[in-house]
Amino acid sequence: MRKIAIASGKGGTGKTTVATNLAAVASRGSIRVAYLDCDVEEPNGALFLRPQIEEKRPVNVSVPGVQEGMCTGCGLCREICQYGAVAVVNRNVLVFPELCHGCAGCWMVCQTGALVESKRTIGRLEMGRADKVHFVQGILNIGEAMSPPVIRQVKTSAMDADLLIIDSPPGTSCPVIESIRDADYVVLVTEPTPFGLNDLVLAVETVRMLALPFGVVINRSDTGDGQTLDYCRKQDIVILAEIPDDRRVAEAYSRGELACDAVQDYSAVFASLVKRLLKG
Amino acid sequence: MGKKQQELVIISGKGGTGKTSIVASFAALAGKCVMADCDVDAADLHLVLDPQVIRSESFSGGKRASVITGRCTACGTCAEVCRFDAVSFDGPSNSRVEKTFRIDPVACEGCGVCSWFCEDDAIDFGPAVNGEWFVSETRHGPMVHARLGIAEENSGKLVSLVRKEAVNLAEERGIGLVVIDGSPGIGCPVIASITGADMVLVVTEPTVSGLHDLLRVADLTRHFATPAMVCINKWDLNPQVASEIEEQACKKGLRIAGKVRYDRAVTKAQISRLPVVEYQDNGCSGDIRSVWESVSSLMQST
Predict the structure, then answer these.
(1) How far apart are CA A140 and CA B213, in angstroms?
(2) Residue-wise pLDDT tens digits, B13-40
């Protein structure tokens, strides 16, 4: 199995476009393809792949549960918690589950059984098929702050496939790390503008820190300026594809259509990208 | 009348809809405001506002654990108690054992449970430097911005800090408005940027993704009881989806602040390192001006 993560520092550069088109085009050959939407705060892959969802499952995280009347007020739980998720007032323990990171410290140090491990639902998983693509997406519940546990669940629910495509959230912080950390290869999608370049540099620092092999796709390559190409050349970064701006592609995207279906020549662009990514 | 400073936050749900270009233009149109770049893991506002940094500070949002190799007896308790798969048995040897345990700083969640349970006092648990934050002067007013370290945690705390410093600065200098550039998504940095703010402007685009993400953001602002308006950027790329957005936004009780046409001048302005309203007067700049007028008049009336 080859795991390819599609990421970018800046949002809106075309991650989902690249990820969904790659999945669709690759699945039309003879290999088994899985698509994982790890952008669980704003998952958009389903709008383009239009999967039949066959299974839904809640995503639960561990949080402390309170057993009434057992607390002796020792305060060890409050002392170990780094997140302010536990408070002790007299002989009562109070928990703030939305601040909890699920480290298990509080119920491990509790000597009286006043705190025990319990579960809380923070999102859900949806699994199904989009033609021949095995599809998984995670959806974070509104108001929940922490997406990494949902991302972790998406990744452990992937079926066996020859090519696994991970659609990552934008940025460079913990949700991105969780999405890409065990990938075999990372595709960084950018656009040749000052904002695009600034955020590409951050994304490159991130994948280099994680010691992951990577290459760059420059989307809307004929807009903007030449700085991004110069940067990639100077840094010896592989350019996997340059995709020119095309009104037909933008319109297809706006309607939720795959570029490879809407515009004939784009199918070939993604087919050659698939070939290149499978080679390693 | 509540507090003297009003906070306007620009977010989008979906990335790349034009948040930062709109914030930069608002800064130019507001006359006097404090700007806060709360998109701390991919900050871009500084690229068009040419900030001169007058103060920089390091940011520590939490702690981090690391094994003191010399004291490790390789008992393995740390690996057993860690819930984040951050401990591995591949550290260097010491005088007692051939291999020690090691904590991956990227995977470490800073909970300290390993250090609590280590019987050999072999885990150091101290403050982590997660980033930097800055106060700068720009030609449109002061700005507070930050840079979260690569692969760092605690972006929500850094966002709260940037916001707080921006409000303090506004108070010090007698400026009534803080304009906040938010991050994409609906998770911790976004929640930290909108809770308790006076107004949220959601910048969206006329695509099925833009609409989908707007609706989730609308639920988020309602969840935290923050008033919100919508700006449809690049609306003429698909007028049909744009009117669908207007309809759905109305149903959610969101007011439309205005629509901005698609204009290649936005990219050209960015390359010239200018907010687009300073780059040209016509085209999308006129649209942005009228969005600004409706946002600011609504804020003044609240």
Answers:
(1) 12
(2) 999 999 999 999 999 999 899 999 999 9
In tens, the pLDDT along B157-208 reads 999 999 999 999 999 999 999 999 999 999 999 999 999 999 999 999 999 9
CB B114 within 8 A of CB B66: no
- CB-based contact B270 A195, cutoff 8 Å: yes
- pLDDT above 90 coverage of chain B, percent: 93
Burial class (CB in 10 A: 0-12, 13-18, 19+), B94: middle
Kindly report, residue by residue over B128-151, the tens digit of the pLDDT.
Answer: 999 999 999 999 999 999 999 888
Q: DSSP secondary structure string, B40-90?
A: TTS--THHHH--EEEEEEEE--EEEEEE-GGG-----HHHHH-SSS-EEEE
Beta carbons within 8 Å of A208's beta carbon, 6+ residues apart: none
Evaluate if residue A35 carries a pLDDT over 70: yes
Report yes or no: A189 and A179 within 8 Å, Cβ to Cβ.
no
pLDDT at A280: 64
Angstroms from B63 CA to nearest CA on chain A: 8
Q: Mean pLDDT score of chain A, rounded to an integer? A: 96
**Are residues B1 and B25 in contact, defined by beta-carbon separation less than 8 angstroms?**
no
Q: Do A143 and B220 touch (CB under 8 A)?
A: yes
Please compute the mean of the pLDDT values over residues B52-63 and round it to a whole number. 95
Q: Does B47 touch chain A (CB under 8 A)?
A: yes
* A140 Ramachandran zone, left/alpha/beta (phi>0; psi -120 to 50): beta
Q: Which of A60, A81, A174 to mutate to test the interface with B (most CBs of B within 10 A)?
A: A174
Nearest CA in chain B to A107: B113
Question: Any CB–CB contact under 8 A between B241 and chain A?
Answer: yes
User: Which B residues 159-178 touch A at CB under 8 Å?
Assistant: none
Q: According to CATH, where is 3.30.70.20 located in chain B?
A: 62-128
Contact B167, B157 (CB under 8 A): no
Average pLDDT value for residue range A204-216: 97
3-state secondary structure B244-259: HHHHHHHHCCCEEEEE
Position A213: which residue type? P
Per-residue confidence (pLDDT) for residue B301, from 0 to 100? 84
Full set of structural domains in chain A with CATH:
2-56+122-279 (3.40.50.300), 68-113 (3.30.70.20)
- CA atoms in the 13 A half-sphere facing the CB of B98: 0
What pLDDT was estimated at residue A243? Answer: 95
Contacts of A140 in chain B (CB under 8 A): 186-187
Mean pLDDT of B96-116: 96
**Fold category of B62-128 in CATH:** Alpha-Beta Plaits (3.30.70)
Domain B6-60+134-301, architecture per CATH: 3-Layer(aba) Sandwich (3.40)
- The pLDDT value recorded for residue B3 is 64
pLDDT grade, residue B1 (50/70/90)?
very low
Q: Taking the mean position of all CA atoms in its chain, how far away is CA A245? A: 25
The per-residue pLDDT for B110 is: 95
